[in-house]
Amino acid sequence: MQPALPRPPHELLRNFTDQLAMPRIFIATSNAGKLRDFAAAAAQYGVEIVSLPGFGSLASVVEDGATFEDNARKKAEHYSRHLPTEIVLADDSGLKVAALQGAPGVMSARYAFISGSRCIHVPNSLDVTVSGAGTGNAPDAENNSRLLAELDGVPKSQRQARFVCVIAAARGGKTLATFRGKAEGVILNEARGSNGFGYDPLFHSMELGKTFAELSAEEKAAVSHRGRAFRKVLEWYRGEESGAGARV
Fold it and tell me: Which residues are catalytic?
């Protein structure tokens, strides 16, 4: 029997680099802020976050769901059809303010575009659903200005707020599981910090005593709604990779 020939060096190198390669998770977003948040949460677990290939050229999804989960599932199912052999994640997230009856809620990214007067003050309404449809996001500065205008005169003791994120994982157009994360805080009277995006400069974290915009990416990932939801995704994803199956 002939002895096995040694493997060519280039093949050994390729196998070695393949073993070192970080597992990749595809995210259906081109939002730079979200990608930074997901990447920061994933880095400590040795996972690479990758935007869905060709995402910018794909037809967009109308986010007209009544809840964050509705929108996350709709986006994940839609975009996963373009990469049917892979698990694709999509999220919907936003800010819920008690004094504004849970607004801006699912309309967080478009809050400045919503017509209407100031919301009624209902202190204990963080679990109220704010539904609505629309396309196109408003600039962060305009959304923040609208939020401050709506809360004008509301004391700090009644400015409780919650960031919520729901991530849906789908393959081939079918949702496999959803994951939810939240972060508690209060809305300040003025912006603080230059990091982050969205409402981060106004959202004061109860845990760290700073706004999300005053945190590093790593600090934010530890306490943010998106970081918490994504850690649940990673736990589930490890089970998927090992053949344990989906756990919703």
Answer: 92
